[in-house]
Automatic annotation (TrEMBL):
The protein's name: HK97 family phage prohead protease
GO biological process: proteolysis
Start and end residues of each Prohead serine protease domain: 18-153
Pfam families (UniProt xref): Peptidase_S78
InterPro entries reported for this sequence: Peptidase_S78_dom, Prohead_protease
Gene Ontology MF, one: peptidase activity
Domain of life according to the entry: Bacteria
Keywords, in A-Z order: Hydrolase, Protease, Viral release from host cell
Length: 176
């Protein structure tokens, strides 16, 4: 199996609680290994998974012994491979991942796959035409710069907004 560590331009966003969403792969961007995933590369794999009732796995650092959540949605769009899922709070490593996401210490996504079809480039690297996607991991070091997690929780944003509002209110009362 091959891996592509990647950073989504839109970022993987921490939503309410343990829910996360973002791009695990961005099309047309050359990664640190010289490979570029082309639009449509995941289509056949996603169809096969759906036909057999299977899902792309959510792992910790590509370790098959450490699943940390469920990808509820994995789909291609014009930008790349979009993932949406949830960390499982009853799994210790998932709680650790959540804490690392919230602190900004963890910010990468990576795909685990088998190459079905690729085109070698004269300049080195490959255009990845068709991939058999196995898993999407939360990782420390992404291979594709555009597949980083932007750990901004709606809850944390709400708390920051509430804190700023309370500070503004205190200042307004002090001016009276």
């Amino acid at each position: 199996m091959e891996y592509k560590f990647c950073k989504p331009e839109a970022g993987l966003t921490l939503l309410e609680g343990h829910r996360i969403a973002g791009y695990a792969s961005v099309f047309g961007r050359r990664d640190k290994g010289g490979d570029t995933v082309l639009p449509g590369a995941y289509g056949a794999s996603l169809q096969k998974l759906a036909a057999r009732g299977d899902k792309v796995r959510m792992l910790w650092q590509h370790d098959p012994a450490q699943p940390i959540g469920i990808w509820d949605e994995v789909s291609e769009d014009a930008h790349g491979l979009f993932v949406k899922g949830r960390l499982l709070p009853d799994v210790a490593r998932a709680r650790e991942a959540l804490a690392l996401l919230q602190a900004g210490a963890l910010d990468g996504l990576s795909i685990g796959y088998r190459t079905v079809r690729a085109q070698a480039l004269a300049t080195g690297g490959r255009n990845l035409v068709e991939l058999d996607l196995w898993e999407v991991s939360l990782v420390t070091f992404p291979m594709q710069t555009e597949a980083r997690i932007s750990a901004k929780s709606d809850l944390l944003a709400g708390l920051r907004h509430a804190t700023a509002s309370m500070r503004d209110a205190r200042e307004a009362v002090a001016r009276l």
